[in-house]
Specification:
410 residues; mainly alpha; 17 helices
């Protein structure tokens, strides 16, 4: 038997694989159970109807971004490429299509976490993030898929695998735009220009992919409609806090509801980008595997905290980032307290455990869901700036060191 703090002997399986396997099985069972719940008991989840309808509309040459009130409520807001990539799920009947979609989203999270963390730590991160993932799966959303693709793309960049890295990040961006933030990892890549060219080629090829089922003129019109939808979504809402699945708008919503600040979103988002990227100025000597992994976790939280269109399910991405950050670091009391606060406020308070009147009159009205992410992200950035020690010289135990990046940056 191996000690839990030592690597497995040659030919012996790392004991961390067992809990990781159990967590992977839990995620798979959860995905299937939630998909059955949301499709076999009417009414079916609206997001599933939107995604399925989008593929049909793309093939038929109809405007993806028009309203189709007879089929579903709300609008399709993703790229034409996503409408095409949803084909394997849309072509199946509703129930098996939903099951396959849920399994795909759950698998992306599990695979991404397992690629960036050693087995024992990956299992811990998945355990912390599980309830947040359940919430996203219940809405048949794509947020956990995006988080998984960001982690997979980051891991591929760390391993100098340019095409898989570009494909994962660009695929996430065709679902929702913010996964493109994972390309920050290219800063650590020794062949930046070549990688940039690979990203451009993949981006162009992905944008043109719907030409397989539609004409060039129709596709150009789809992209114009998509741009119009994104432009409307960039405008501030008149009100926030109307419902649990409504837009929370991250830090921008919090500033408006708590302090009445009515300025545009972009100054706050620009300031967030500057703070996010400023630790890179510490230079290559600071860019250890631990630094790079924590930057990824910070990007995941940033993608929600500075997302003016962040809905309640979107916060699953931030919780995945928090889980990765905690699992990768030392178990200090303040780290535990920060993640526990996020788990309670972001996850548990969104369930029926919180009395309905408190949920409606305080939690939703004052966008409390965002609050614990603010100190969490501040601490993450303080660690990246070197103002708070992580307690780990390279971010892992000796046998785990450089597990993310087998070729350390010189």
């Amino acid at each position: 038997m191996t000690r839990p703090d030592l690597p497995a002997a040659p030919g012996e399986r790392d004991p961390g694989f067992r809990p990781l396997g159990w967590l992977a099985a839990l995620y798979a069972v959860t995905a299937v159970a939630v998909a059955l719940q949301r499709t076999m008991f009417p009414p079916p989840e609206n997001n599933l109807l939107i995604f399925r309808g989008a593929f049909d509309h793309l093939v038929a040459g109809r405007d993806l971004y028009a309203a189709y009130p007879r089929d579903y409520t709300d609008l399709f807001k993703y790229s034409p490429t996503f409408a095409l990539l949803y084909a394997p799920f849309a072509l199946l009947p509703l129930v098996p299509g939903a099951v396959l979609w849920g399994l795909t989203c759950a698998a992306a999270v599990v695979a991404g976490t397992a690629r960036i963390l050693p087995p024992r730590r990956a299992a811990l991160a998945l355990a912390i993030a599980w309830l947040a993932v359940v919430g996203d799966l219940q809405r048949a959303q794509s947020n956990v898929l995006c988080a998984g693709l960001m982690m997979l793309g980051w891991a591929a960049m760390e391993r100098r695998r340019q095409l898989p890295a570009a494909a994962a990040v660009v695929a996430g961006a065709f679902v929702k735009l913010f996964p493109i933030a994972a390309l920050t990892g290219a800063v650590f890549h020794p062949r930046k220009i070549r990688f940039g060219l690979v990203v451009v080629v993949v981006l162009v090829a992905g944008a043109a992919l719907p030409l397989l089922v539609t004409g060039a003129g129709s596709l150009a019109a789809q992209y114009r409609s998509w741009h119009a939808v994104e432009a409307r979504d960039a405008l501030p809402l008149a009100t926030y806090g109307l419902g649990g699945a409504d837009v929370y708008a991250g830090l921008m919503g919090l500033l408006r509801v708590w302090f009445g600040l009515q300025w545009p979103f972009w100054p706050t988002q620009l300031a967030g980008i500057v703070v996010l990227l400023a630790p890179l100025l510490r230079g290559p000597r600071a860019w250890t595997p631990a630094f790079r992994l924590e930057l990824l976790a910070s990007i995941l939280v940033f993608s929600v905290l500075f997302n003016h269109q962040a809905e309640s399910p979107t916060y699953s991405i931030a919780m995945i980032g928090a889980a990765v950050w905690y699992a990768a670091g030392e178990r200090t009391w303040w780290r535990t307290a920060l993640v526990a606060l996020c788990f309670i406020v972001v996850n548990l308070a969104s369930t029926p455990l919180l009395p309905p009147e408190l949920y409606r009159d305080y939690y939703v009205k004052y966008l409390i869901k965002t609050v614990p992410l603010v100190p969490l992200w501040i601490v993450m950035q303080a660690e990246l700036f070197g103002l708070i020690p992580t307690g780990r010289s390279e971010g892992t135990e000796p046998h785990e060191r450089d597990s993310l990046a087998p070729n350390p940056i010189a």
